[in-house]
Design a protein that fits this description.
The protein has 3 domains: about 50-185, Immunoglobulin-like, CATH 2.60.40.420; about 195-340, Sandwich (Immunoglobulin-like); about 360-500, Cupredoxins -  blue copper proteins (Immunoglobulin-like, Sandwich), CATH 2.60.40.420. The chain contains 5 helices and 35 strands. The chain has helices spanning about 5, 170-175, 185-190, 325, 470-475, and strands at about 15-20, 25, 60, 65-75, 85-90, 95-100, 105-110, 120-125, 145-150, 155-165, 180-185, 200-205, 225-230, 235, 235-240, 245-250, 260, 270-275, 275-285, 285-290, 295-300, 310-315, 330-340, 360-370, 375-380, 390-395, 400-405, 410-415, 420-425, 430, 440-445, 450-455, 460-465, 480-485, 500. This is Multicopper oxidase CueO. Belongs to the multicopper oxidase family.
Length: about 500
């Protein structure tokens, strides 16, 4: 068995295959990196934030849209006037947008021209196992391809896709392999929310550069990733008319948390989270995003005079010694002037599905070595093993999962493939309102915290994963397999399983 403190070397850049199991093993660190770029030398608010490209299907046949994407390296101007090598879908950084409709199938052929294996996961997607992007369901480098089928048998949601090849995902996502997948339905379409040019997806992430403007990757070095990017640009500006805008915010960082607010402290509305719209809009002054999480917000700029400049700031994740002028700023809004606005945010957005009755309870404990002696991370005391089924679930079952962060200093979060879930409790307190009251697929656990989740496992049988979506932690082994099957029995139980009476 290969131990993770051996295979997960900092600075790993290339993968290989070990035996028939296909275990991905990053190579040992190479020559010393060039000197780090000083983030204070990067000009802020000089580049315009781009709006991600909407990818056009190669053809539409009936109720199916077909797309072709190539995984390839490309050069991007992240820092003003300098080029950085990144890993991309179709050469786009950030990745492109697929616009999908519930009930209409999307088929994507991914061709891997990178030098490393990949596996593309539709984060938040309700998809068959064959198209889930399993950590070991790999697309070979140098021209291998795979077809992913997304039936879209789920309500509207702000989804995204990214690499999930185990041990490699941390570096490949960090180097740019992410994209947007905006799924809509008649519920969302029947609302009069800001749309068109006034509906803008924004991918947030952090980065570290050397003095030649190239990305520096080291496992777990997020405190050195002090340049914040919005849609692939370092500290950009975005011109807005004096009217309402919808911003779909995606935390695509490996490790960084964000607490986003406007620099003048003014309120805006949060209308959605991971799994689409909330039941009702929330008046907030900030939104919190862990890695992998999404927030859907509406900001009304009509209250500002032309020429106003506002910073979308980050008050979260700042540790002693962190430079607030870097990691405390995300982007700048520049108000240009009035514009017609017929959009509105209604007092009721949607009716959330009923919770149903749970018949199974399970317990999951997230932990990792905080002494620095090893690079191991665990769920219920075990690191990930692709050949081990950790949890057997009966098809159609509704279950309650109690997830606890056993660490004293280290935060985690928890992402479940296949399903959207509801957060029932946080540290014993019921969650009945607020940003966690909607449909979720990723949930934060601060040190010592416990959350209780409920999900129904239906639609597809097969083997999927749950894991910490602080991607470095998943690469270190904080991941497990669950299998959904119509033949699952109580005798083949997962962690902490016990039957509870129907409520």
């Amino acid at each position: 068995m290969i131990h993770r403190r051996t295979v997960l070397k900092t600075g790993a850049a290339l993968t290989g295959a070990l035996g028939g199991a296909g275990l991905l093993v990053p190579a040992a660190a190479g020559p010393a990196q060039a000197a780090d770029l000083d983030p204070t030398t990067v000009p802020q608010f000089e580049q315009a934030m781009p709006v991600p490209e909407v990818l056009q299907p190669v053809c539409d046949l009936g109720l199916t849209s077909y797309y072709d994407m190539t995984l390839q390296e490309a050069d991007a101007e992240i820092l003003p006037g300098r080029l950085t090598r990144v890993r991309t879908f179709n050469g786009s950084f950030p990745g492109p947008v697929i616009q999908a409709v519930s009930g209409r199938r999307v088929v994507v052929r991914q061709t891997n021209q990178l030098s490393v294996p990949t596996s593309i996961h539709l984060h938040g997607g309700h998809v068959p196992q064959s198209s889930d992007g399993s950590p070991m369901d790999l697309i070979a480098p140098g021209g291998g391809s795979k077809i992913y089928t997304y039936p879209n048998h789920q309500p509207h949601a702000n989804l995204w896709f990214h690499d999930h090849a185990h041990h490699q995902e941390s570096e490949t996502v960090y180097r740019g392999l992410t994209g947007f997948y905006l799924l809509t339905d008649h519920v969302e379409q029947n609302l009069n929310l800001p749309s068109g040019a006034y509906d803008v997806p924004i991918a947030l992430r952090d980065a570290r550069f050397d003095d030649s403007a190239q990305l520096v990757y080291e496992m777990g070095d997020f405190r050195k990733r002090q340049v914040l990017l919005a849609n692939g640009k370092a500290w950009p500006y975005f011109e807005v008319a004096a009217r309402k805008y919808r911003f779909r915010l995606f935390n695509t960082s490996n490790m960084r948390f964000y607490l986003l607010q406007l620099s003048d402290g003014s309120a805006f509305q949060q209308i959605g989270s991971d799994g689409g719209l909330l039941a009702k809009p929330l008046d907030v002054t900030s939104v919190f995003l862990a890695p992998g999480e999404r927030a859907d917000i509406v900001i009304d700029f009509s209250r500002y005079a032309a020429g106003t400049r506002l910073i979308l700031s980050n008050a979260g994740g700042l540790l002693p010694g962190d430079p607030a002028d870097q990691v405390g700023r995300v982007l700048q809004f520049r108000v240009t002037g009035p514009a017609e606005d017929t959009s509105s945010v209604p007092s009721t957005l949607r009716t959330l599905p009923a919770l149903g009755s749970a018949t199974v309870n399970r317990d999951f404990v997230l932990s990792m070595d905080e002494t620095g002696k090893t690079m191991d991370a665990f769920i219920n005391g075990k690191t990930y093993d692709m050949n081990r089924i950790d949890t057997e679930i009966e098809y159609g079952a509704t279950e309650i999962w109690t997830v606890r962060n056993a660490n004293v200093y280290t935060p985690h979060n928890f992402h479940i493939h296949l399903v959207q879930f509801r957060v029932l409790e946080r540290d014993g307190k019921p969650v009945t309102s607020g940003p966690e009251s909607g449909l979720k697929d990723t949930v934060t656990l601060k040190p010592g915290e416990t959350v209780k989740l409920q999900a129904t496992f239906t639609g597809y049988e097969g083997t999927y994963v749950y894991h910490c979506h602080m991607i470095d932690h998943a690469a270190m082994g904080m991941m497990g397999n669950f299998r959904v099957s119509k033949t699952a029995t109580t005798g083949r139980s997962g962690p902490g399983r016990h039957r509870s009476p129907r409520r």
